[in-house]
Amino acid sequence: MNKEIVKNITEWYKQNSRDLPWRTNRNAYSVWISEIMLQQTRIEAVIPYYARFMEAFPDVFALAAAEEELLLKLWQGLGYYSRARNLKKAAQIIVSEYGGVLPKESKLLKKLPGIGDYTAGAIASIAYGMPEPAVDGNVLRIMMRLWASDDDVLLPAAKKKTEEALRKVYPNGDEARLLTEGLMELGQRICTAKGESKCESCPIAEHCLAYRKDETSLYPVRIKKSKRRIEERTVILLCCKGRYALQKRPETGLLASLWEFPNIEGRLHLSELSAYAAKLGGNAVDFYDAGEAKHIFTHLEWHMTGRIIECTAPFGEFEWLLPEEIEAEYALSSAFIPYIKAAFHHNEIMKK
Fold this sequence. Notes:
Elements: H1 3-16, H2 28-38, H3 43-56, H4 60-64, H5 68-75, H6 82-98, H7 106-109, H8 117-128, H9 137-147, H10 156-167, H11 173-189, H12 209-212, E1 229-240, E2 243-248, E3 259-260, E4 263-265, H13 273-280, E5 284-296, E6 300-311, E7 319-321, H14 323-329, H15 337-351
Helix pairs in contact: 1-11, 2-3, 2-8, 8-11, 9-11, 14-15
């Protein structure tokens, strides 16, 4: 990495940057929110979420005072809900300890919940013009191809090597912003993953060893991780007069504090549903299939089978809600979205 490469990236970015909503106002708050949302999520998917979030919580003070139910509802569909909870926790610290202004030093930013090396570097360089690199998967891919490096990109050593190389050439002021955003843009649009890179349009192709060797598809090197564990689950839609039972998950663990339809590990057959309802305290009168769905977590994959149990009366410590209420007011993991649709469909059928 050298200053000529830096200049090529920043000049290219000036001519090719996209008009994204969080680039309209590059204050530290908007950079922070957008970068947290963009973790594990495509830009196109984030745009409408970002707009709704900023309308509801336009500044750190509004976020610090946010009701958790609204916060999680606005986050619904983005997944990784701990990100939303950490945003509120960090906002409260920023208000109480920093007067509502995000610190500019990377080491202070990293003390806030949910802010790691990458997000701290992005805020420091984009919002404050600090010479701090923001190294994510896109930047690692660029650098591993630039060097044709055989380092395992999944190991910390590759990230450390990249950060050290970038720090030697990182500029100050607006050039820091241009380099950070330029690297992001280059990785998202040109030096892309899965052998689809557009090397002929790359501003640093002449410096890229992998390109010279015609081996860009070989980099970055990844040592395969173990496969996700597959878990069979049965999602139970307890229904009484068009209303469905909803329960809240524990405050810790997977999908903490989110609402859900009752569900259990394993696959219940229709013949087992009456006993299941009775165990919960309900009186089942009819049963329906609600379809199958899959949901992928980082290390776990749910294979779900949905069952609708018609009951004579509400029971238990559930919230009994119309599908319209669930969809509009309650924060559920996207794992259960197919079963909200199944509830709508079932109610329509039962009206006929």
